[in-house]
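Here is the promised in-class demo. Please do not try to memorize the tokens; focus on the logic of going from shape to residues.
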């Protein structure tokens, strides 16, 4: 049995050994180590061989006999995935990026041993004429505020002691020892936290509905079935701070009267699964999960359930069906899961990011949380930035932050220097926001008003080279594949929409097709059974709303203004051609003619539009038109 005094003792013993990572506080604490080296072990960096860099650092530190002075720690995602593999050296906060195994020797010899920063390995955004910036001073981070991600890239995710040192489990202790279950629910309602998995339903209300539901058994579920293309917010939290989700689910169990929780996680997240399994075992060994937590009569356990990767299982009733061993398809509502959920019992479902906020809300209070963000959308939101953006990765910003700040300050702008065209938020369920609305504050209502949505947090940035018709086709292709097929509007309607979009991008569309496409979109939105079908037309409707001229160009002129749709594109050799013959040598269709040192010509009737000629041309003489 663990007590609050035990937690305080663990914190006092652990904090001095990890305080170097906090930068500014490090001067006031006597640390066991002279330097700490944090290596990103998140899936993104690991795929770029960060674990080989870590292994080499460990080997060299032992070789140089620096083990007592230098601590190597594998942590979660730092956020700036574009810079991976990432290593950060504290107390200076030196931000090393794009590392290879060979770079480890320079870092050990020059920095860890010699005390000199290896400038050529430092992330470019951390270098200035005045001084070398710490990671926290890099522009990518200065506009952010970490709540759900506060421990990611800071603590060892496998260490329950390090989690406790950063106030972990103090929220659970406060809830169990100082609050009634109803007071916990009221605190969640007062905080204004809204579900971070899609529609933004008030979390406290959902908890209240489940608390008031009658039943001899209740369940707490965590939706970790993250299926949006390009989204990895939940994965980053589970890999970088898994104890926050375990603590939050335990708090939720106390609040609604449940003793069993399940984390439904897709099998494609093996690293997150292993971490959760380890952390559940460690929480039980500390008495923070299982029987009589904190010496009370409250008991709570958590188990994992693996999903096969169906996007529709992100819908709560489909998720429930999958856990029960049934085919993962949505059920009619009402009844809602709060009244009749898992195995017919009252069930609370929140997603990973929502849970990651909860321990801090309980520990610090609802007013603290409401002090961040806006009145209608309190707190922060985690997004994954992708597409035509320099700083691809994962970010967390206060609600109300303008899109402009996200794209140009946090995101670093468009790498090609081309004009910003639009941003897709909410993944396949969302819509496009154009350059005209770039100063829009990021809030639930404002995004919905523009025909998009917050969604789980995918954010894809597009420049003028992106074809908006093709973007709509891409997302429809995804939802057609992921439709469970239960209801006719989604099963048949999305296929018909996709067929029309393919026809348009191939230059075979008509104006009647545009009318039919829009009519179908509204019908599917109104008649589908679940959120997948109801939101599937959003990318089409928003692009029709803001980029109808592009659709009409495809239909009337048989041209793709962005030069993206292959069937509507022609390659042409300009007067810049120097007659080097490289294009002709690379052409798989042998449709380029011309003599050495003379301008070449493409036979457009034979051209397969592969683009090999443009890639081969050393002077940029081959263009699309």
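The designed amino acids, position by position:
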């Amino acid at each position: 049995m663990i007590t609050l005094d035990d937690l305080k003792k663990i914190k006092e013993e652990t904090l001095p050994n990890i305080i170097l990572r906090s930068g500014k506080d490090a001067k006031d604490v006597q640390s066991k180590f002279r330097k700490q080296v944090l290596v990103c072990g998140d899936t993104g960096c690991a795929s770029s061989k960060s674990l080989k860099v870590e292994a080499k650092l460990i080997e060299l530190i032992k070789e140089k006999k620096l083990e007592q002075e230098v601590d190597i720690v594998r942590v979660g995602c730092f956020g700036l995935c574009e810079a991976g593999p990432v290593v950060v050296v504290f107390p200076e906060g030196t931000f090393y990026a794009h590392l290879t195994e060979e770079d480890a020797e320079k870092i050990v010899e020059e920095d860890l041993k010699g005390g000199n920063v290896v400038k050529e390995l430092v992330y470019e955004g951390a270098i200035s004429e005045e001084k070398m910036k710490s990671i926290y001073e890099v522009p990518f981070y200065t506009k952010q505020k970490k709540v759900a991600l506060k421990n990611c890239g800071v603590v060892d995710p496998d260490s329950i002691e390090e989690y406790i040192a950063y106030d972990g489990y103090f929220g659970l202790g406060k809830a169990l020892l100082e609050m009634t279950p109803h007071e916990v629910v009221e605190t969640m309602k007062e905080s204004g936290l809204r579900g971070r998995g899609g529609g933004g339903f008030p979390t406290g209300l959902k908890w209240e509905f489940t608390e008031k539901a009658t039943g001899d058994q209740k369940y707490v579920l965590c939706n970790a079935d993250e299926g949006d293309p390009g989204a990895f917010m939940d994965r980053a939290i589970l890999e970088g701070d898994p104890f926050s989700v375990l603590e939050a689910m335990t708090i939720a169990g106390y609040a609604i009267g449940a003793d069993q929780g399940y984390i439904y996680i897709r099998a494609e997240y093996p690293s997150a699964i292993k971490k959760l399994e380890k952390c559940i075992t460690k929480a039980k060994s500390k008495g923070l999960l299982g029987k009589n937590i904190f010496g009370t009569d409250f008991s709570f356990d958590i188990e994992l359930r693996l999903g096969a990767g169906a996007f529709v299982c992100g819908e709560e009733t489909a998720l429930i069906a999958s856990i029960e061993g049934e085919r993962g398809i949505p059920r009619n509502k009402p009844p809602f899961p709060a009244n009749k959920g898992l195995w017919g019992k009252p069930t609370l479902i929140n997603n990973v990011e929502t849970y990651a906020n909860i321990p801090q809300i309980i520990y610090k209070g609802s007013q603290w949380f409401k002090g961040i963000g806006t009145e209608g959308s309190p707190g922060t939101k985690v997004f994954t930035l992708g597409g035509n953006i320099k700083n691809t990765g994962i970010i967390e910003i206060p609600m109300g932050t303008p899109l402009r700040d996200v794209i140009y300050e946090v995101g670093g702008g468009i790498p090609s220097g081309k004009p910003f065209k639009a941003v897709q938020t909410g993944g396949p369920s969302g819509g496009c926001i154009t350059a005209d609305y770039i100063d829009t504050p990021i809030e639930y209502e404002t995004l919905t008003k523009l025909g998009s949505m917050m969604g789980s947090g995918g954010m894809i940035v597009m420049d003028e080279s992106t074809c908006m018709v093709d973007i709509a086709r891409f997302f429809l292709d995804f939802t057609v594949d992921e439709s469970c097929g239960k209801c006719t509007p989604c099963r048949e309607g999305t296929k018909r929409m996709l067929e029309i979009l393919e026809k348009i991008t191939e230059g075979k569309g008509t104006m009647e097709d545009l009318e039919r496409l829009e009519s179908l979109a509204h019908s599917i939105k109104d008649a589908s059974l679940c959120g997948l079908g109801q939101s599937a037309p959003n990318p089409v409707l928003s692009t029709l709303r803001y980029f109808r001229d592009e659709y009409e160009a495809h239909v009337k002129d048989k041209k793709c203004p962005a030069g993206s749709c292959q069937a509507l594109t022609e390659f042409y050799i300009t007067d810049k051609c120097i007659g080097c013959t490289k294009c002709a040598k690379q052409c798989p269709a042998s449709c380029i003619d011309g003599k050495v040192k003379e301008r070449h010509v493409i036979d457009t009737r034979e051209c397969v539009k592969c683009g090999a000629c443009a890639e081969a041309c050393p002077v940029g003489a081959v263009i699309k038109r």
